[in-house]
TrEMBL record:
Organism: Nocardioides bruguierae
Annotated pathway: Amino-acid biosynthesis; L-valine biosynthesis; L-valine from pyruvate: step 4/4; Amino-acid biosynthesis; L-leucine biosynthesis; L-leucine from 3-methyl-2-oxobutanoate: step 4/4; Amino-acid biosynthesis; L-isoleucine biosynthesis; L-isoleucine from 2-oxobutanoate: step 4/4
Named cofactor requirement(s): pyridoxal 5'-phosphate
EC number, UniProt record: 2.6.1.42
Keywords: Amino-acid biosynthesis, Aminotransferase, Branched-chain amino acid biosynthesis, Pyridoxal phosphate, Transferase
UniProt similarity note: Belongs to the class-IV pyridoxal-phosphate-dependent aminotransferase family.
GO biological process: amino acid biosynthetic process; branched-chain amino acid biosynthetic process
Catalysed reaction equations from the record: L-isoleucine + 2-oxoglutarate = (S)-3-methyl-2-oxopentanoate + L-glutamate; L-leucine + 2-oxoglutarate = 4-methyl-2-oxopentanoate + L-glutamate; L-valine + 2-oxoglutarate = 3-methyl-2-oxobutanoate + L-glutamate
Annotated positions of the N6-(pyridoxal phosphate)lysine modification: K201
Enzymatic class: transferase
Protein name per the record: Branched-chain-amino-acid aminotransferase
Record-level Gene Ontology MF annotations: branched-chain-amino-acid transaminase activity
Keyword Amino-acid biosynthesis included in the entry's annotation: yes
Amino acid sequence: MQISTTVSDHPVDDARLAEIFANPGFGTYFTDHMLTVEWTPDAGWHAARIEPYAPLSIDPAAAVLHYAQEIFEGMKAYRHPDGSVWSFRPEANAARMARSAERLALPVLPEDEFVEYVDALVRADERWVPTSEGANEKSLYLRPFMFASETFLGVRPSQHVTFMVIASPVGSYFKGGVKPVTIWLTEQYSRAGRGGMGAAKTGGNYAASLVAQQEASAHGCDQVVFLDSTEQKYVEELGGMNLYFVHADGRIVTPATGTILEGITRASIITLAEKMGYTVEERKFSIDEWKDGVASGEITEIFACGTAAVVTPVGELRWDGGSLPSAPVGEVAMELRKQLVDIQYGRADDGHGWMHKIC
């Protein structure tokens, strides 16, 4: 598909860009351009364009504002030592967005077009991809998203849909670098249920987690962990990350998917762990197994992962009336993190075909 391009008349100047790169934060600053593609039943996907980044003009009756028909992805572009720019497993993001679209009754964007559109925006704003040295792990965070843009009040799939890509230079997700996060166990709220949208990357799942995250913050915790909605006994995931439990006998257990998001970092960690000789089990994992395993010493490490935070050690677990002590930063988590980050930033050979060169 042809992509028309309108170059910004007021790009951020080099001095201001250097200031942003010095302290990018996460999701605070955005690049000079954005990409947009539209869909209707008659025309299919059409009107692909790159334009200056700007606020959207949206009708108050746009379906997304009333019925939450919306999905998104999260991925990054990395500057390698030779100056080239790469993304990590973009075809996996494309496939997941297709699954999310099917679950939300949105049109499926072909996977090759998804990758092409993301690449096009990165090339247009290539100067926004920061260099990364040492432990700063700076990158360009990419946010493809799709929403129901039809002006219509009625409960049915939208007949006009908009797909967009925006980008934001970012540093570490958690301030202060890699350190164990404290987790709050919510026993009041659930993130998703059987047959629901838990495996789709849709904003509603994250909206459902926010009140529990407020609960976690009120108890001095960084993140919240959810249990299954049926029996309230099986661990699912954090508000935005998948979990792993390292056992003394060499097993690593991660909760099975179905009602949780199939994380791309999650799948990559499984591959790397198995290559390191660990047996990875994807299965139901109860909160009692977590508590008993830590108490007995059978569980030696716990860590979480996601695109934004990569790999983060889990420390203390708190709940109403109790807590588990904080565990030290584990060697397994840190080795897996190093292997993954070194591949992403071009410091190690990619033996898996995960990296995709953009420019």
